[in-house]
Design brief:
heterodimer, A: 422 residues, alpha+beta, 33% strand, B: 5 helices, 42% strand, globular
Amino acid sequence: MKTINKPVLRLVAATLALAAAGLAHAAELPAGTVISAENIDKIKSDTFEGHTVASLLTEKMEWRIRNNGMKVPLAKSKEIPLDPKWVKASAANAGKTKINGETCQVDGWQAGQPFPDIDMKDPQAAEKVIWNWHLGQLSGDLAHAPFFTQVLIDGEKGVHAEPVAEFIRYSMKGRLSGDAVEGDGGERGRQLLYFKAPSDMKGLGTFTVMYDNAKVPDVWAYIPAVRRVRRLSGGAWMDPVGSSDQLQDDLEIFNARPCWYPGYKMLGKRMVLAVAHSKTPLWNRNGKTFGEKYPVLEDKAPFWNMNNNAYEPREVYVIEATTPAEHPYSKKVLYVDTKYPRIYYGEAYNRKGEFWKMMEFHSYPAKAEDGFTDVRSAGGAIIDFQRNHATVFLVDSGSWKTNVAGMSAKDFTLQTLQAAGR
Amino acid sequence: MKKRSSKTRPARALLGTAIAIAFALPALPVHAEDGNLKIDGYLRQELSWNMQNWEDTPGYDDRGKLSMARSTARLNIDWKATENVSVVAKLRAVGEVQTPFLRHLEKMGANNYHDGDIMDLYNRNDISDVVRELYVDFGLGERTRVRLGKQQIAWGETDFFAANDMVHGFDWTWRSFLEPANEELRKANIMAKVNIDVPELDGGVEMFIRPGWDRKSDIGTELEIYGGRWSSHPWAGVDFRNIDPYDYENDEGDVRDVTGGIRWSGMAGDINYSLSYLKTYWPNPIMNGTSKFNGIPGFSSVKTEGRADTNGLFGDIIYPIVDIFGFTASGYADWADAVFSTEVAYIKDAPYNFSAVPGSLASQNVAPGFDGVKHKNVLAWMLRMDKNLAFTQSLLGTEKPMFFSVQLFDKWILDYDGGDRLLNSVGWGGRAKEHNMLLTGIFSLSYDNGRVRPELVVGTDLTNGGGFAVPSVTVELAKNWRWKVEYDKFWNNESRDAGECAPPNAGMCDKSALFGYFHKRDQLYTSLTYLF
């Protein structure tokens, strides 16, 4: 008897206790509530839009809130408007596309996200989500951020460098206005990046050609001190970008050709608090004080927390990406929106399997010059917890332009890079 | 040597510094990125010390002496006048203080040609010096861009021991070839440059013409032949212009001559390549020996080039014009995860001084090289590999793979004849070989998110022996502050021993080549830069 009754009694007691605790404390939190180290224990069981706070935080977010000054202001979730052209192009791919492992391409893909329907039972589900991100972002045919900064932050001392740069990415494939493909179909896109400040980086620029196959990108740099263009190593896709905390592979959390990774595992779907309707701008380049310049950051150690934004519940796929053997990370865990290709968080683990970096990107939907609805990054943080250092990428969103008329591939060549250097 | 009053020297140095500050101050509050006007620049203080006792300053211990105390203000102005027209100015003002070491060189005779003050070598703040570049950029149609004005054009792939980077000469008087930012040393010229993009052929054409409107001193590479701090061993305190002044109006190379070039650069598959033709001044100074020593015909067997006779007693320094046909290529090789580059320059009739037997009167009494000029076809070529070495991340704890670059450079004299007794350079006895090869390596590391950047540059002369090693570290002290410390180490297989070179043996007493020129010239260098 005893042996039967004890577990039953325990279960009943636990259930009653939980119910009592729930009845006594659980509450629907109002938008604007800020989750912080001070209140997390108190509100963990409370709900927001019907989800408990505990279930909306990843393990690493909770750890950051408790130990690293992260604060999460709650905001009501809103639909992301999906551009009709993109929706139509994506729908057209249903059942017609296939990952071709040999060519490192998606056969049958023209534009939009190549796999509009993800079946969680599909063994390729995770890989397909990554291909959707790689080829099907809502970024427009031409994205131009005339000013962004990469703030380098020491967790104890604060900002120690804030270079300013300009960025243009031009799609050669998957175009949604006019022909889907420009050129011979081998190129996926072209990218120009120029530094504008500080003075010893001004004029430094890179031109990158990305391919729609396994080939690593071709990269050239203009070096102002010698007034010359130099070819850079294409194999640098897993090396750090400049002196920042992010690898080339970490740009917008995941920047590799999906086939360069040996595998992906779908860990499941869940809800998470993420910034999908970011405040803008997160960087005011004319600001004088820390607070004026970086309105999203909290001027308090560790200085990299983007605490002054609006986090809303989003449903995400949780995907574990296995890195190639020579990669500095052993694995990367990605949190990808289920409604459209967007990665909110990434976690990187070192070769010993220890947690190393966390990446967090904030985005917002906006209208392009031609009316296209794109999703733009307002900022992002790449935090290296082992070195207590972070790189925070912030955009002057007021000057951002998408799908500017009158530009063609001819405007994005090595000659452009050479001409711009002075 | 005419003495300057002790009041004048500090006054001149202060003037330079004042100009430097005056340049910088108005810019500080501007720092504009908005709108149509962009202004930036830096203030820099550089110091260097001799680390060895020079052998050619007898009775003076050079070791530990401050050889340079130089302040620089740099201002870059970029004004977008209209949507299609930009005006760019790059201004530089310098102010050097006369150190006791420089005063000693001055006493020995440095820069005493025409009663010059040694500080005139370093405090160059004439308007043409201050205006390093001033040009207007505008487009013509969709694919043509024009740049008119004083500007710099860098061709070729390599910065060390350049093959095709010969559009301009370099100023090596205040800092010799160790300066990594060679744009600071290049002598900008007044030119018209046109670029035409040809995207259909994956490339573009660049053409330029230099109408010959530059100052005389703005052509040719200026070696320190005035006896100052970068004078080569054993010529400290010797201003060669007293016996061989510059001749910038020689028929072989006149500053008023029109020079120019055309280059096609493009892509062939994954390979970047360029083909170029350049008509320009041979950058190395050439000694144009006298054919009528001291005005007396028959005393010299030397043939003077480009004029009836020289202005100088022993000769003139000239920069003959040469034709250079260039080719470059670079590409990324997946199998090596490295970038390979090559550069070839075919120089038609490159001028060489030589050492005759018996030598001319000047060669016997001063140094080899006054015996005339011979012309040779030369193939200068370079092979380079750039590679990021990831093992430094675990081995040395670098934050990213070390940048490693190795370069082999050769100057190959095509119609070589040992009997020509060609010299590498006038003033030293080292004779040019058929192949003259140099090997260099660069190792660049980075720590603490770019705040500490150590670098090692090494090089060796495979043909003649000797070499150099330059370890340095650059530290980002704060957002706008950079501090660099560098050691410049030189070694040589052979150097010229003045004791063995007494007349009439001056032309036959040594075989010293490139690194013999830097004998005992080791330096410790530091710079502090404020960026704005």
